Amino acid sequence: MNKTRWKDMPLARKVILAVGSIMIMMLAINVILYGQVNKTIKRMDTVYSSNVNLTELSDSLKTVQEDLYAYLSVKSSDSLENYYRSEQNYLTLLDKLSDQISSNPSKLLERNIKSMSETYVRLTGDAVTAKRSRNVEKYKELYDRSQQLYGYINSYINELNNQQFRNNSSNYQTLREMLEYLEISSLVLMSIMMGLGAMMLFGITKGMIEPLTNLAETANLVGQGNFNVKMPRTDALDEVGIVTRAFNTMVESLEEYIIRTKESMEKEQQMMEKELLMKNHLKEAQLKYLQSQINPHFLFNSLNAGAQLAMMEDAEKTCIFVEKMADFFRYNVKKGLEDASLEEELTAVDNYIYILNVRFSGDIHFTKVVDARLMDCRVPSMILQPIVENAVNHGIRNIDWEGKILLEITGTEDMIHIRIKDNGKGMSRERICEVLSGNSGEGEEQSDSTGVGMNNVISRLELYYNQKNLVDISSQGINMGTEVTLRLPRTGGKK
Hints:
Blueprint: H1 11-45, H2 49-74, H3 77-94, H4 105-132, H5 136-223, H6 239-291, H7 296-312, H8 315-334, E1 339-341, H9 342-359, E2 365-370, E3 378-380, H10 384-396, E4 404-411, E5 415-422, H11 429-437, H12 454-465, E6 471-474, E7 482-489
Parallel strand pairs: 2-4
Antiparallel strand pairs: 1-3, 4-5, 5-7, 6-7
Helix pairs in contact: 1-5, 2-3, 2-4, 2-5, 4-5, 5-6, 6-12, 7-8, 7-9, 8-9, 9-10
């Protein structure tokens, strides 16, 4: 089995093996040194702990003597409480001293201090008792004896403290020398390991860093806009060789790509700005303009028919006619800038058919089939009446047979389907395409209409729903009638 040679390994594996080996060796050395240094530091921390304890013991003894004096002088409950507290603290610290019989001078001093302290505490306690019994001579005698013993104990504590300080200083110096030796050893070993590691990494990365440095310099020039520079060609199959060839290929096409992208972005930005400007400034104006058109000729002719009817018939029919006219034009004016419910739209259609039947002696045969559940759905205003009007003027007007118009409204969960069908003149395919594309002209007959034509309805529906292809017109041919179908999203409801 052939072993993989070092130079055949991928660059990542080489770096991982080299760095991993160095890290393991450094970790091992650091763990060993850390253990020794930590052990030495702990020993150093405990060197002067005995001196600290003796100093604390001396301060506590002083506090006891002061609190005793304060109580004997004042005899207050606070001073007595302070005395008992300081006495208890002193006894607690005293328990740390050894009371074993030994030839060691330090141990002997500890035993003497502890023995004298027990006598001292007993004397101070008796003095307090005598004070509470108001035995002045006795508590003064006891206080003097405790004061004398206090001086002896304090001198013994100082002597013991000095003796332990000398011993601790010697131990501290030895431990400090040991710590300095460990520090020097740590620095030497770390320096050796770092040197070996640097040599290993230098040997591995030299062949990789140089081409990468050249690649970085070349990429910097390309970033500044100089597309005429390239990396030296190489036939190497490692990662660096692959990157070099890919970089050269990228540079060859980068300049052209940037120019094309810049031009495309500029054009797209201009188009977006124009489109946004048009939407913001024209949408509302266009919607209001398209909704507000009413041909004055229709109003004039309708009111003229009402005047003629008033002369020929009684006032009741004239009243109904005028009310229908008033309702129709009131709806048109009121809803010109609003949407409406399907129920309101159907009422406008009914009023319009009634007005026409008065004018044309009931020749308009109009039928409607509607789903009552859809009556509250909201739609743009004045969309049904213009389509019915278109069926009258361009469908059944001036035909030789009985003209009929059917308005049917059905729906699904998401859509409203409106169908307006007549049996009139029909439309050619070319004419249907013109109407749906918005290229249909205004004919002469429009002077006798409301002026809101199919182009207007289609435009307003597209603006309202922000969709196209909402209207469809079909006809079988000449004299075969016409059918207009609206497919509207069911987005409206009670307002």
